[in-house]
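Late entry, written up from scratch paper. The run itself happened at the end of the previous shift, but nothing got recorded in the book at the time, so transcribing now.
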Amino acid sequence: MVRTATTIGFSVPPEIAADVERIAVAQGCSKSELFREMLRVYKRNRELMVFEDLSAYGRSRAQERGVRTESDVERLIHEAREA
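Output as recorded:
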């Protein structure tokens, strides 16, 4: 039979280990399931942080260029195509 999971091991302070155990019991899941969910949430948060950083950069650049409306965006596209 082909194994569909890989076992990994890592060390954590005892208080974190106790938290993991307590949360898994409270959620009615295994520590492995809890870890997988924590990783999904972490990845989603990282993606959101990257998106927010890009959005902030875009807002900053738009403000520098005086872009406030969709027509401003269309104007800049038109100017870039003519250049």
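Residues 14-82 form one domain.
(Scratch paper discarded after transcription.)
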